[in-house]
Fold this sequence. Notes:
Number of helices: 16
Helix content: 40-55%
Strand content: 5-15%
Order of helices and strands: EHEEEHHEEEHHHHHHEEEEHHHHHHH
Shape: globular
CATH class of one domain: Alpha Beta
Mean pLDDT: 92
CATH topology of one domain: Aminoglycoside 3'-phosphotransferase, Chain: A, domain 2
Largest sheet: 6 strands, mixed
CATH architecture of one domain: Alpha-Beta Complex
Amino acid sequence: MACFKFEGDFETLSDTQLKLVESVLKKQGFNDGKVLVEPVGQKGDNYVANVIRFIYEKSDGSYFKMIGKVAPAAEELRKMMNTMILFLNEIVMYEEVLPKFNDLQNLAGVSANEKVRFPVCYGCVREPPNELILLEDLKESGFEMLDRFQPLSNDSVRVALKDLAKYHSLSYVLKNNEPETYNNISKKLLNMWALMDDDPAVKIFFEANENDMKLMVESEKHKKVIAGSLSQIATLAKKLQSYEKTSKYSVILQGDCWSNNILFKLEDGKAVENVMIDYQLSRESNPAADLLYFILNCTDYESRSKYYQEWIAYYHEMLDDALSNHGLKSNRVFPRDQLDADLRRYGNIMVSLGILLSSVLLRESKDVVDFKDFQGVSAEDMIDSVTNCMRAGSLDNVTIMKMKLKIEGIIDSALEFGLIQ
Protein backbone atom coordinates (compact mmCIF):
# COMPACT_ATOMS: atom_id res chain seq x y z
CA MET A 1 0.00 0.00 0.00
CA ALA A 2 1.31 3.43 -0.96
CA CYS A 3 2.43 5.63 1.90
CA PHE A 4 3.31 9.23 1.11
CA LYS A 5 4.30 11.81 3.68
CA PHE A 6 3.15 15.33 2.84
CA GLU A 7 5.11 18.29 4.15
CA GLY A 8 4.77 22.05 3.73
CA ASP A 9 1.60 23.94 2.73
CA PHE A 10 -0.81 21.02 2.40
CA GLU A 11 -3.13 21.62 5.37
CA THR A 12 -5.83 23.25 3.24
CA LEU A 13 -5.97 20.30 0.83
CA SER A 14 -8.88 17.92 1.30
CA ASP A 15 -8.59 14.14 1.51
CA THR A 16 -10.10 13.92 -1.99
CA GLN A 17 -7.41 16.19 -3.39
CA LEU A 18 -4.58 14.39 -1.59
CA LYS A 19 -5.87 11.05 -2.87
CA LEU A 20 -5.61 12.30 -6.46
CA VAL A 21 -2.02 13.36 -5.84
CA GLU A 22 -1.21 9.94 -4.38
CA SER A 23 -2.95 8.21 -7.29
CA VAL A 24 -0.90 10.13 -9.84
CA LEU A 25 2.32 9.39 -7.99
CA LYS A 26 1.49 5.69 -7.98
CA LYS A 27 0.84 5.78 -11.73
CA GLN A 28 4.28 7.31 -12.13
CA GLY A 29 5.72 4.26 -10.38
CA PHE A 30 6.26 5.74 -6.92
CA ASN A 31 4.99 3.86 -3.88
CA ASP A 32 6.10 5.88 -0.89
CA GLY A 33 8.22 8.83 0.10
CA LYS A 34 8.10 12.53 0.93
CA VAL A 35 6.00 15.06 -0.99
CA LEU A 36 6.81 18.71 -0.34
CA VAL A 37 3.98 21.16 -1.05
CA GLU A 38 4.97 24.79 -1.71
CA PRO A 39 3.19 27.91 -3.03
CA VAL A 40 3.84 29.10 -6.57
CA GLY A 41 4.14 32.71 -7.65
CA GLN A 42 2.91 35.74 -5.78
CA LYS A 43 -0.27 37.74 -5.33
CA GLY A 44 -1.47 39.00 -8.69
CA ASP A 45 -0.26 35.98 -10.65
CA ASN A 46 -3.55 34.11 -10.24
CA TYR A 47 -6.87 35.41 -8.90
CA VAL A 48 -9.15 32.38 -9.16
CA ALA A 49 -7.05 29.44 -7.97
CA ASN A 50 -4.47 28.68 -5.33
CA VAL A 51 -1.46 27.45 -7.30
CA ILE A 52 0.95 25.09 -5.57
CA ARG A 53 3.83 22.82 -6.51
CA PHE A 54 4.09 19.17 -5.43
CA ILE A 55 7.70 17.98 -5.21
CA TYR A 56 8.28 14.24 -4.84
CA GLU A 57 11.80 13.23 -3.92
CA LYS A 58 12.88 10.03 -5.71
CA SER A 59 15.18 7.44 -4.19
CA ASP A 60 18.06 8.57 -6.43
CA GLY A 61 17.82 12.14 -5.14
CA SER A 62 16.08 13.56 -8.24
CA TYR A 63 12.56 15.01 -8.20
CA PHE A 64 9.19 14.61 -9.87
CA LYS A 65 7.23 17.86 -9.79
CA MET A 66 3.62 18.78 -10.52
CA ILE A 67 1.67 22.02 -10.47
CA GLY A 68 -1.69 21.95 -8.71
CA LYS A 69 -4.50 24.43 -9.33
CA VAL A 70 -6.66 24.27 -6.22
CA ALA A 71 -10.15 25.73 -5.95
CA PRO A 72 -11.05 27.83 -2.88
CA ALA A 73 -13.34 25.99 -0.48
CA ALA A 74 -15.13 28.96 1.17
CA GLU A 75 -18.71 29.01 -0.12
CA GLU A 76 -19.19 32.78 -0.43
CA LEU A 77 -15.83 33.20 -2.15
CA ARG A 78 -16.72 30.41 -4.58
CA LYS A 79 -20.00 32.15 -5.41
CA MET A 80 -18.34 35.50 -5.96
CA MET A 81 -15.59 34.07 -8.17
CA ASN A 82 -17.88 31.60 -10.04
CA THR A 83 -15.33 28.98 -9.05
CA MET A 84 -17.36 25.93 -10.06
CA ILE A 85 -17.92 27.21 -13.61
CA LEU A 86 -14.34 28.35 -14.12
CA PHE A 87 -12.83 25.09 -12.92
CA LEU A 88 -15.30 23.03 -14.93
CA ASN A 89 -14.36 25.02 -18.04
CA GLU A 90 -10.69 24.30 -17.51
CA ILE A 91 -11.25 20.63 -16.71
CA VAL A 92 -13.26 20.23 -19.92
CA MET A 93 -10.35 21.81 -21.79
CA TYR A 94 -7.73 19.53 -20.23
CA GLU A 95 -9.77 16.34 -20.33
CA GLU A 96 -11.60 16.72 -23.65
CA VAL A 97 -10.54 19.61 -25.88
CA LEU A 98 -6.75 19.63 -25.68
CA PRO A 99 -6.38 15.83 -25.95
CA LYS A 100 -8.60 15.97 -29.05
CA PHE A 101 -6.47 18.74 -30.51
CA ASN A 102 -3.37 16.63 -29.87
CA ASP A 103 -4.98 13.69 -31.66
CA LEU A 104 -5.72 15.89 -34.68
CA GLN A 105 -2.08 17.00 -34.83
CA ASN A 106 -0.85 13.41 -34.58
CA LEU A 107 -3.31 12.21 -37.21
CA ALA A 108 -2.08 14.87 -39.64
CA GLY A 109 1.54 13.96 -38.95
CA VAL A 110 2.45 17.43 -37.71
CA SER A 111 6.11 17.41 -36.69
CA ALA A 112 6.98 17.76 -33.03
CA ASN A 113 8.52 21.22 -33.44
CA GLU A 114 5.42 22.50 -35.28
CA LYS A 115 2.80 21.18 -32.87
CA VAL A 116 0.98 23.35 -30.38
CA ARG A 117 2.29 22.16 -27.04
CA PHE A 118 -0.17 21.80 -24.19
CA PRO A 119 0.72 21.15 -20.55
CA VAL A 120 0.43 17.49 -19.59
CA CYS A 121 -2.59 17.01 -17.33
CA TYR A 122 -2.08 14.21 -14.81
CA GLY A 123 -5.59 14.24 -13.44
CA CYS A 124 -8.50 16.32 -12.17
CA VAL A 125 -11.07 16.38 -9.42
CA ARG A 126 -14.41 17.76 -10.66
CA GLU A 127 -16.49 17.47 -7.50
CA PRO A 128 -17.05 20.80 -5.72
CA PRO A 129 -15.65 22.19 -3.51
CA ASN A 130 -12.62 19.94 -4.04
CA GLU A 131 -11.74 20.91 -7.62
CA LEU A 132 -8.10 20.25 -8.41
CA ILE A 133 -6.12 20.15 -11.66
CA LEU A 134 -2.68 18.50 -11.66
CA LEU A 135 -0.35 19.63 -14.45
CA GLU A 136 3.24 19.17 -15.50
CA ASP A 137 5.67 21.68 -14.08
CA LEU A 138 6.74 23.47 -17.26
CA LYS A 139 9.60 25.12 -15.43
CA GLU A 140 11.31 21.72 -15.53
CA SER A 141 11.27 21.92 -19.35
CA GLY A 142 12.80 25.39 -19.42
CA PHE A 143 9.64 27.49 -19.75
CA GLU A 144 9.31 30.63 -17.70
CA MET A 145 6.86 33.42 -16.94
CA LEU A 146 8.04 36.80 -18.16
CA ASP A 147 7.67 40.04 -16.21
CA ARG A 148 3.96 40.94 -16.36
CA PHE A 149 4.79 44.62 -15.96
CA GLN A 150 6.83 44.73 -19.16
CA PRO A 151 5.36 44.69 -22.71
CA LEU A 152 6.32 41.70 -24.82
CA SER A 153 9.00 42.23 -27.46
CA ASN A 154 8.19 41.88 -31.15
CA ASP A 155 9.99 38.51 -31.21
CA SER A 156 7.93 37.19 -28.30
CA VAL A 157 4.70 38.46 -29.86
CA ARG A 158 5.41 36.64 -33.12
CA VAL A 159 6.18 33.38 -31.29
CA ALA A 160 2.89 33.66 -29.39
CA LEU A 161 0.87 34.66 -32.49
CA LYS A 162 2.16 31.64 -34.39
CA ASP A 163 1.07 29.35 -31.58
CA LEU A 164 -2.30 31.08 -31.25
CA ALA A 165 -2.92 30.65 -34.99
CA LYS A 166 -2.07 26.95 -34.80
CA TYR A 167 -4.32 26.59 -31.77
CA HIS A 168 -7.27 28.24 -33.56
CA SER A 169 -6.67 26.10 -36.64
CA LEU A 170 -7.38 22.97 -34.62
CA SER A 171 -10.92 24.17 -33.84
CA TYR A 172 -11.56 24.65 -37.54
CA VAL A 173 -10.17 21.19 -38.27
CA LEU A 174 -12.35 19.60 -35.59
CA LYS A 175 -15.39 21.52 -36.80
CA ASN A 176 -14.71 20.42 -40.38
CA ASN A 177 -13.88 16.77 -39.66
CA GLU A 178 -16.10 16.05 -36.66
CA PRO A 179 -18.80 18.74 -36.40
CA GLU A 180 -20.86 16.79 -33.87
CA THR A 181 -17.87 16.36 -31.56
CA TYR A 182 -17.05 20.05 -31.86
CA ASN A 183 -20.63 21.07 -31.05
CA ASN A 184 -20.88 18.72 -28.08
CA ILE A 185 -17.63 19.98 -26.56
CA SER A 186 -18.12 23.68 -27.25
CA LYS A 187 -21.54 23.62 -25.54
CA LYS A 188 -19.87 22.55 -22.30
CA LEU A 189 -17.78 25.72 -22.14
CA LEU A 190 -19.56 28.65 -20.53
CA ASN A 191 -18.93 32.30 -21.37
CA MET A 192 -18.18 33.86 -18.00
CA TRP A 193 -18.32 37.42 -19.31
CA ALA A 194 -21.85 36.89 -20.67
CA LEU A 195 -23.03 35.17 -17.49
CA MET A 196 -22.05 38.25 -15.50
CA ASP A 197 -24.83 40.21 -17.20
CA ASP A 198 -27.29 38.77 -14.69
CA ASP A 199 -25.22 39.68 -11.62
CA PRO A 200 -25.96 43.16 -10.18
CA ALA A 201 -22.94 42.97 -7.87
CA VAL A 202 -20.62 42.62 -10.85
CA LYS A 203 -22.19 45.67 -12.48
CA ILE A 204 -21.54 47.69 -9.33
CA PHE A 205 -17.92 46.54 -9.34
CA PHE A 206 -17.46 47.40 -13.03
CA GLU A 207 -19.07 50.82 -12.62
CA ALA A 208 -16.81 51.66 -9.68
CA ASN A 209 -13.75 50.75 -11.74
CA GLU A 210 -15.07 52.72 -14.70
CA ASN A 211 -15.45 55.85 -12.59
CA ASP A 212 -11.89 55.44 -11.33
CA MET A 213 -10.55 55.06 -14.84
CA LYS A 214 -12.34 58.23 -16.02
CA LEU A 215 -10.75 60.18 -13.20
CA MET A 216 -7.34 58.71 -13.98
CA VAL A 217 -7.12 59.98 -17.58
CA GLU A 218 -7.06 63.65 -18.50
CA SER A 219 -8.25 64.17 -22.08
CA GLU A 220 -11.90 64.21 -23.08
CA LYS A 221 -11.06 61.79 -25.89
CA HIS A 222 -10.04 59.11 -23.41
CA LYS A 223 -12.82 59.89 -20.95
CA LYS A 224 -15.40 59.55 -23.72
CA VAL A 225 -14.22 56.05 -24.65
CA ILE A 226 -14.12 54.90 -21.01
CA ALA A 227 -17.62 56.21 -20.28
CA GLY A 228 -20.00 53.24 -20.41
CA SER A 229 -17.23 50.83 -21.41
CA LEU A 230 -16.66 48.68 -18.32
CA SER A 231 -20.28 48.73 -17.19
CA GLN A 232 -21.32 47.33 -20.60
CA ILE A 233 -18.81 44.45 -20.82
CA ALA A 234 -21.23 41.71 -19.76
CA THR A 235 -24.05 43.10 -21.90
CA LEU A 236 -21.77 43.27 -24.97
CA ALA A 237 -20.58 39.72 -24.32
CA LYS A 238 -24.14 38.48 -24.12
CA LYS A 239 -25.10 40.23 -27.38
CA LEU A 240 -22.11 38.76 -29.20
CA GLN A 241 -23.13 35.23 -28.19
CA SER A 242 -25.91 35.15 -30.75
CA TYR A 243 -23.36 35.86 -33.49
CA GLU A 244 -20.86 33.35 -32.09
CA LYS A 245 -23.34 30.49 -31.82
CA THR A 246 -24.37 30.75 -35.47
CA SER A 247 -21.09 31.85 -37.04
CA LYS A 248 -19.07 29.32 -38.99
CA TYR A 249 -15.97 31.30 -37.99
CA SER A 250 -16.25 30.59 -34.26
CA VAL A 251 -13.53 28.61 -32.49
CA ILE A 252 -12.78 27.44 -28.97
CA LEU A 253 -10.83 30.36 -27.54
CA GLN A 254 -7.90 30.15 -25.19
CA GLY A 255 -9.79 33.01 -23.57
CA ASP A 256 -7.18 34.62 -21.31
CA CYS A 257 -4.10 35.29 -23.44
CA TRP A 258 -1.98 37.62 -21.37
CA SER A 259 1.61 37.52 -20.20
CA ASN A 260 1.13 35.39 -17.08
CA ASN A 261 -0.72 32.73 -19.07
CA ILE A 262 1.91 32.32 -21.78
CA LEU A 263 5.17 30.70 -20.69
CA PHE A 264 8.18 31.18 -22.93
CA LYS A 265 11.37 29.24 -23.53
CA LEU A 266 14.26 31.61 -24.15
CA GLU A 267 17.55 31.15 -25.97
CA ASP A 268 20.10 33.94 -25.55
CA GLY A 269 17.30 36.03 -24.08
CA LYS A 270 15.06 35.60 -27.14
CA ALA A 271 11.73 33.71 -27.13
CA VAL A 272 11.85 30.58 -29.29
CA GLU A 273 8.86 28.61 -28.00
CA ASN A 274 5.81 29.11 -25.81
CA VAL A 275 3.09 27.19 -24.01
CA MET A 276 -0.32 28.62 -23.18
CA ILE A 277 -1.72 27.87 -19.74
CA ASP A 278 -4.91 28.70 -17.80
CA TYR A 279 -8.03 27.82 -19.77
CA GLN A 280 -10.67 28.87 -17.23
CA LEU A 281 -12.08 31.55 -19.56
CA SER A 282 -12.08 29.29 -22.62
CA ARG A 283 -15.31 29.42 -24.57
CA GLU A 284 -16.68 29.40 -28.09
CA SER A 285 -16.13 32.76 -29.72
CA ASN A 286 -14.24 34.37 -32.59
CA PRO A 287 -10.45 34.24 -33.14
CA ALA A 288 -10.43 38.05 -33.20
CA ALA A 289 -11.32 38.01 -29.49
CA ASP A 290 -8.18 36.07 -28.55
CA LEU A 291 -6.08 38.10 -30.96
CA LEU A 292 -7.13 41.52 -29.65
CA TYR A 293 -7.08 40.39 -26.01
CA PHE A 294 -3.46 39.29 -26.47
CA ILE A 295 -2.24 42.31 -28.43
CA LEU A 296 -3.95 44.97 -26.31
CA ASN A 297 -2.95 43.47 -22.96
CA CYS A 298 0.58 42.27 -23.72
CA THR A 299 2.08 45.06 -25.84
CA ASP A 300 2.51 48.82 -25.56
CA TYR A 301 1.25 51.63 -27.77
CA GLU A 302 4.61 52.23 -29.46
CA SER A 303 4.98 48.60 -30.52
CA ARG A 304 1.40 48.40 -31.73
CA SER A 305 1.83 51.55 -33.82
CA LYS A 306 4.86 49.99 -35.46
CA TYR A 307 3.82 46.35 -35.78
CA TYR A 308 0.03 45.97 -35.46
CA GLN A 309 -0.72 45.49 -39.16
CA GLU A 310 2.29 43.22 -39.51
CA TRP A 311 1.12 41.13 -36.52
CA ILE A 312 -2.38 40.68 -37.96
CA ALA A 313 -0.96 39.66 -41.34
CA TYR A 314 1.49 37.28 -39.68
CA TYR A 315 -1.25 35.66 -37.59
CA HIS A 316 -3.36 35.00 -40.68
CA GLU A 317 -0.36 33.67 -42.60
CA MET A 318 0.41 31.25 -39.76
CA LEU A 319 -3.26 30.22 -39.62
CA ASP A 320 -3.10 29.36 -43.32
CA ASP A 321 0.10 27.36 -42.80
CA ALA A 322 -1.42 25.44 -39.89
CA LEU A 323 -4.65 24.69 -41.77
CA SER A 324 -2.67 23.39 -44.76
CA ASN A 325 -1.34 20.56 -42.57
CA HIS A 326 -4.93 19.30 -42.49
CA GLY A 327 -5.86 19.96 -46.12
CA LEU A 328 -7.73 23.20 -45.40
CA LYS A 329 -7.24 26.76 -46.63
CA SER A 330 -7.78 29.98 -44.71
CA ASN A 331 -9.51 31.71 -47.65
CA ARG A 332 -12.34 29.22 -47.21
CA VAL A 333 -12.22 28.63 -43.46
CA PHE A 334 -11.52 32.15 -42.15
CA PRO A 335 -10.67 34.66 -44.94
CA ARG A 336 -8.54 37.70 -44.20
CA ASP A 337 -11.38 40.12 -44.94
CA GLN A 338 -13.53 38.24 -42.40
CA LEU A 339 -10.76 38.57 -39.82
CA ASP A 340 -10.61 42.32 -40.46
CA ALA A 341 -14.39 42.61 -40.11
CA ASP A 342 -14.37 40.62 -36.86
CA LEU A 343 -11.54 42.68 -35.40
CA ARG A 344 -13.85 45.67 -35.76
CA ARG A 345 -16.82 43.66 -34.45
CA TYR A 346 -14.94 42.72 -31.27
CA GLY A 347 -13.11 46.02 -30.90
CA ASN A 348 -15.43 47.61 -28.34
CA ILE A 349 -15.55 44.69 -25.92
CA MET A 350 -11.84 43.92 -26.17
CA VAL A 351 -10.93 47.55 -25.55
CA SER A 352 -13.28 47.55 -22.55
CA LEU A 353 -11.67 44.38 -21.21
CA GLY A 354 -8.24 45.89 -21.79
CA ILE A 355 -9.20 48.92 -19.70
CA LEU A 356 -10.63 46.69 -16.97
CA LEU A 357 -7.61 44.39 -16.90
CA SER A 358 -5.23 47.36 -16.78
CA SER A 359 -6.72 48.17 -13.38
CA VAL A 360 -6.04 44.61 -12.22
CA LEU A 361 -2.89 43.30 -13.89
CA LEU A 362 -0.64 46.31 -13.30
CA ARG A 363 -0.98 46.19 -9.52
CA GLU A 364 2.03 45.42 -7.40
CA SER A 365 1.67 42.39 -5.13
CA LYS A 366 1.11 44.63 -2.10
CA ASP A 367 -1.96 46.13 -3.80
CA VAL A 368 -3.53 42.87 -4.94
CA VAL A 369 -6.58 41.48 -3.19
CA ASP A 370 -5.76 38.27 -1.33
CA PHE A 371 -9.00 36.32 -1.37
CA LYS A 372 -7.75 34.11 1.45
CA ASP A 373 -8.43 37.09 3.69
CA PHE A 374 -12.15 36.78 2.99
CA GLN A 375 -12.68 33.30 4.38
CA GLY A 376 -15.97 33.26 6.30
CA VAL A 377 -17.00 36.76 5.21
CA SER A 378 -20.55 37.27 3.96
CA ALA A 379 -21.10 37.76 0.23
CA GLU A 380 -22.23 41.38 0.69
CA ASP A 381 -19.27 42.31 2.89
CA MET A 382 -16.90 40.50 0.55
CA ILE A 383 -18.12 42.43 -2.50
CA ASP A 384 -17.86 45.73 -0.62
CA SER A 385 -14.35 44.90 0.59
CA VAL A 386 -13.11 43.76 -2.81
CA THR A 387 -14.62 46.81 -4.53
CA ASN A 388 -12.93 49.13 -2.03
CA CYS A 389 -9.61 47.30 -2.32
CA MET A 390 -9.70 47.66 -6.08
CA ARG A 391 -10.34 51.41 -6.03
CA ALA A 392 -7.51 53.46 -7.53
CA GLY A 393 -7.46 55.73 -4.49
CA SER A 394 -5.56 53.08 -2.56
CA LEU A 395 -2.70 52.97 -5.09
CA ASP A 396 0.57 54.89 -5.16
CA ASN A 397 1.29 57.47 -7.86
CA VAL A 398 3.71 55.22 -9.74
CA THR A 399 1.10 52.48 -10.16
CA ILE A 400 -1.59 54.99 -11.13
CA MET A 401 0.69 56.47 -13.80
CA LYS A 402 1.40 53.00 -15.23
CA MET A 403 -2.32 52.31 -15.43
CA LYS A 404 -3.01 55.71 -16.98
CA LEU A 405 -0.42 55.21 -19.71
CA LYS A 406 -1.64 51.67 -20.38
CA ILE A 407 -5.29 52.71 -20.67
CA GLU A 408 -4.54 55.72 -22.86
CA GLY A 409 -2.36 53.55 -25.09
CA ILE A 410 -5.09 50.96 -25.55
CA ILE A 411 -7.62 53.64 -26.47
CA ASP A 412 -5.20 55.42 -28.83
CA SER A 413 -4.43 52.13 -30.60
CA ALA A 414 -8.10 51.28 -30.91
CA LEU A 415 -8.84 54.66 -32.49
CA GLU A 416 -5.79 54.45 -34.73
CA PHE A 417 -6.73 51.05 -36.15
CA GLY A 418 -10.49 51.61 -36.37
CA LEU A 419 -11.39 49.12 -33.64
CA ILE A 420 -13.77 51.62 -32.08
CA GLN A 421 -15.49 54.69 -33.48
